[in-house]
Specification:
This protein has 4 helices and no strands. Residues 5-10 and 136-142 have low confidence and may be disordered. The chain is mostly helical. The protein has helices at 15-41, 44-74, 80-103, 113-133. It is elongated.
Length: 142
């Protein structure tokens, strides 16, 4: 007798986890836009805005990263998507932290590295959010 299990495994994000994850996108996007405004005008307020927006993105991303690591450790089944999701969240947070340290410099010393790092962090946050909001492991074999 052969027994097969054709059930579909779906693991979805908890709604609070999704809020933390999705909150990183507008904050890091705002940081990119504020850095671009500073790059265009050299008014110091834009550098300050970018610094605060990056800090907010790190707070939201940090909570999402902690939740992801705990979920990855507690899971009885780990998928490639879950590892990729955690990796991209970690990369976003680490490079975002470096970006935050860059913005802590004197306002004139922020450019152009601040803008470049803000763009990289924003792209990584978008990738992590896309992976995170996708259904992990749908249809995978056990």
């Amino acid at each position: 007798m052969t027994v097969t299990d054709d059930s579909i495994y779906r693991s979805r994000l908890h709604p609070i986890h999704a809020v933390f994850l999705s909150g990183t996108i507008p904050l890091f996007l705002g940081s990119v836009l504020a850095d671009y405004a500073y790059f265009s005008s050299y008014q110091i307020q834009w550098s300050d805005f970018a610094s605060w927006l990056t800090a907010g993105g790190l707070v939201f991303g940090g909570f999402a990263l902690i939740w992801s690591i705990v979920s990855l450790i507690a899971a009885d089944r780990r998928t490639t998507h879950a590892f990729l999701y955690t990796f991209f969240l970690l990369a976003t947070w680490v490079i975002g932290f470096i970006n935050s340290l860059t913005h802590a410099k004197d306002a004139w010393a922020v450019m152009p590295m601040g803008l470049v790092l803000s763009v990289i962090v924003f792209v990584l946050a978008c990738i992590a959010t896309c992976i995170g909001l996708a259904r992990f492991g749908e249809g995978d074999a056990r």
